[in-house]
Amino acid sequence: MKDLGTILNDFQSEIQDVHNEDDLNRIKGKYVGRKSVLNDFFQEMKTLSPDEKKDIGQKINELKSFIEKVLMDKTRVMEQEKKTKNRVDVTLPGKKQWSGSFHPIIMTMYHIVDIFQSLGFRVETGPEIETDYYNFEALNFPPDHPARDAQDSFFLGQGYLLRTHTSPAQVRIMEKTKPPFKVVIPGKCYRRDPMDASHSLMFHQIEGLVVANKISMGDLKGTIEIFAHRFFGADRRLRFRPSFFPFTEPSAEVDVSCGICGGKGCRSCGHSGWLEVMGAGLVHPNVFRSTGYNPQEVRGFAFGMGVERSTLLKFGVPDMRWFYENDMSFLEQFKTVR
Ligand code: DAH
Asked: Which candidate, 185, 215, 212, 179, places its Cα nearest to that of 117?
């Protein structure tokens, strides 16, 4: 039979290898259970004298309570480990969910379209690949007219080109619609311009067209004023400057007072106090003729504005190229706007 010192040594080395409940139960049974090695000692004791019994009994009991204490401690440690292993630490920072959002250009486009829809305008679209006829000729740009120079396109051959403005959609809509009507046409346009802070070879416009039997410059001014006050702010003033577009007569360039200096003049507005926001005018009789309308019977006003430009002005972005660089730290700033 082993002596008590060997049992203690065995126990201490075996307890090191206890890693789970099964190990723990096994070792409990072996050292303190009913059939444990210590029990064997108690059996043996029957043959000893009372003094010997007392002495060895005390030693066995001491060893037993030591072993029980170690086993209890081990049980507690293992329970603790189990708890921490399965615990959810609610104070840890969560996993950030990345959510997408509208591009600032698209956001501005929706905003502008919303305003016109609230004024009773319908939304239409037109093709980005156009013919020379719709992009120029039907809009009263004769083949060699110098006004074409300002809108150099990407020519695709066989009479096709990428539209340089959204105005050709005016013609397509008039061809298929009976007046009176009010439409806005948002969309992409393309020009063969070198990229700089205010030019891009792809950009967005919103075209507006209203046709009825009685339409005047007053209707145009009133409509644009409502739009500008809602979009830019009620404190902004408007100015209509005479201009030229082949498809309108009279034609105007619409300026809004600078939001940065309040119209006094600063670097952003080139010290003029005004910012150009759109071209507009009354529809030219030749445009009505090319769509089959009788210019004696209908009148109309039209306007076209750059979405990039409006976004620059609204948010104070200094360079149009920033919209296309896909720099998330720039784009994410617009997430909460609208
Ligand atoms: N299409 C013109 C351009 O891109 C803008 C424009 C001017 C549109 C006057 C209009 C308008 O409808 O009436 O430069």
From this structure: 185
